[in-house]
Amino acid sequence: MYAELQMLIDGAWTQGTGRRREAVINPANEQILGELPVAERPDLEAALGAVARAQADWAATLPKERSRILRGAAEIMRQRADEIARHMTLEQGKPLGETKIETAVSADILDWYAEEGKRAYGRVIPTSMPTILNQMMVKEPVGPVAAFTPWNFPAVTPARKIGGALAAGCTLIIKPSEETPAGALAIARALEEAGLPKGVLNMVFGVPAEISEFLIASDIIKKVSFTGSVPVGKHLTRLAADGMKRVTMELGGHGPVIVFDDVDVDKAAAMSVAGKFRNAGQVCVSPTRFFVQERIYGDFVEAFTEKAKALKVGDGLEAGTEMGPLANARRLDAIDGLVRDAVGRGATLKTGGERIGNSGFFYAPTILADVPEDAKVMNDEPFGPVAPVVSFKTFDEAVHQANRLPFGLAGYAFTNSAETSARVGAALKTGLVGLNSFAISMPETPFGGVKESGYGSEGGIEGLDAYLSTKFVTQSGAV
Ligand code: NAD
To answer: What is the dihedral of CA 189, 192, 195, 197, to 10 degrees?
Structure first.
């Protein structure tokens, strides 16, 4: 059984007003899981009307009441965790162990925002003139939000946007990925059952460009939040600029990993395999360019290769599967193209480099050694199970390589020298830095990139602030 595919508009579950439907495919066997309704103009107008009507009451709802609803939804998600995880594995492909973690983290994100929403503090500013009685800064909800999320984390990414917006007192219309709707739908159902008033959260599906263009152009929408690729992020930012609307953009990256020669090679290789092949590498903060110091380079490549070869690839529902299929056929072609290009330019294929079987979008975990700088995989975000490895001699050379690209999302370094660790942490031009760790995303920590990887943060106190505007109020004596 798979999820019931509907849209949520103005408190009603609906198939929408049109006849168009979008098939949701299981990437492990290419079978159709269900038909998703496609929003037409009247559906989007209804959603806009709903957020406009609900905004004032939701903003005025006591933070502790908003908190109660978010916490209630988190609890419902936990009770349904097995079912939600199964639906996400069916639609997205990643192993059940990963979708169970994703469900738990999504519930934790709602809990985090449930608490943080009570702390949208302003401040009192001492006056500098005797005529001023009072100066204060207050935080207010920015207003109705349009949010767009991709297919690689069907629940966590919607949870971040929904949790932040609702906790701050914003209503929203979210368009999750048409390829993986179940995670977001589970969150919407849980919130509705926990008592979310009608119209506060609306969930639509359809043709992404049609929906984003229409919603962002509406005067009702005051903020745009998007997670996805750099080109689409730039496009939506341009659309938002026409109405001078606030944006949060969580875009792509090309995560450098610098491995210095003072580490335990086997341990670093084991962590790299776990980090690299999680969600088959379809993660914006995935480690994607490995720079390894020359003394341990050969040993690292061998250990990395052996451990990648040993991964069990299969249907994410099967026990023991460590890596599932890629999420869609586009990724299969893209990864194969990157591997061929690298080998054509002189890289050594250590393992993988081919599709597995001809049913389902399976691709073998792939390690490429001695990859030249001009290979596409060293420049374009790979978003798949391929790891290029290159050797370096000096600290400066490694940092230069790490910072060479226009991306700046996540960067990692492995070293047991406290000094090198501090220096490399400061030198990496990324919004997120993992030192001896690939775990750089928690509900309570800010998540976001610099350079072309985006603008703004989700998670942490910054994630709440993203949905609040700043108002300064000054008060003088009687007139
Ligand atoms: P894509 O660029 O077509 O789409 C990326 C996401 O943006 C999808 O969810 C899509 O529905 C949405 N989208 C596309 N056009 C849109 C529009 N005009 N308005 C609103 N939403 C729109 O590419 P894709 O084939 O789905 O994914 C490929 C690339 O996207 C990857 O290589 C990766 O760089 C990037 N990506 C990044 C993330 C992330 O977490 N940052 C997630 C998924 C994909």
So the answer is: 170
- Give pTM, 2 decimals: 0.98
Residues spanned by the domain of 314: 255-442
Rounded mean pLDDT for each run of 10 residues along the chain, 479 residues in total: 97 97 98 98 98 98 98 98 98 98 98 98 96 97 98 98 98 98 98 98 98 98 98 98 98 97 98 98 98 98 98 98 96 96 98 96 98 98 97 98 98 98 98 98 97 97 98 96
Active-site annotation, residues: 250, 284
Out of 229, 248, 363, 453, mutate this one to test ligand 1's pocket (max ligand atoms within 8 Å of CB): namely 229
Tokens found for residue 277: 């092949």
- For residues 213 and 342, membership in a common domain is answered with no
Q: Which residues line ligand 1 (CB under 6 A)?
A: 148, 150-152, 177, 208-209, 212, 227-229, 232, 235-236, 250-252, 284, 330, 381, 383
Element housing 476 (H / E): strand 468-476
Residue-wise DSSP of 246-308: EEEEE----EEEEE-TTS-HHHHHHHHHHHHHGGGG--TT-EEEEEEEHHHHHHHHHHHHHHH
Closest ligand 1 atom to residue 157 Cα is 40
One domain, residues 224 and 292: no
Q: Looking at the structure, do residues 156 and 18 belong to the same domain, yes or no?
A: yes
- Name the closest-CA residue to atom 7, ligand 1: 228
Provide the 10 A C-beta neighbour count for residue 256.
25
Tokens 């976001």 found at: 448
- Domain count for the chain: 2
Residue nearest to atom 42 of ligand 1 (CA): 228
Does a structural domain hold residue 424? yes
Residues 15 and 98 in one domain: yes
**Are both 229 and 370 inside the same structural domain?**
no
Task: Supply 256's token pair.
Answer: 């450098």
- The answer to whether residue 2 is domain-embedded is no
Give me ligand 1 centre to Cα 92, in Å: 14
User: Which CATH number fits the domain that encloses residue 390?
Assistant: 3.40.309.10
